[in-house]
Amino acid sequence: QVQLVESGGGLVQPGGSLRLSCAASGMKFSIATMGWYRQAPGKERELVAAITSGGSTNNVDSVKGRFTISRDNAKNTVYLQMHSLKPEDTAVYYCSATYYGFDYWGKGTLVTVSS
Q1: N or C: which end of the chain has fewer CB atoms below 10 A?
Q2: pLDDT values of the chain reduced to their tens digit, one per residue, 115 residues
């Protein structure tokens, strides 16, 4: 079965950086569209960034110029590099995979931006 396992979250000061990783298994990773979502307390889950099987990416406006999504098909892993973090980036970050028309989710990793 498809499994997605996120890592790399934690506490970081405003202006800092983190890199999230999501290791996928149980699927042909290279053909899946991968994404990162986040959900802040009291808010709905929102798409942060996505990357297609061909490597095309899109980011939500609030993270453009600060966050970069990438993938390593040899490692079955998708990354989210985050720079210039702000307190409003605090959320649980979820990895997603769209694979043969089905959506799969990881359990999430918490990112807290605070001084």
Answers
A1: N
A2: 999 999 999 999 999 999 999 999 999 999 999 999 999 999 999 999 999 999 999 999 999 999 999 999 999 999 999 999 999 999 999 999 999 999 999 999 999 999 9
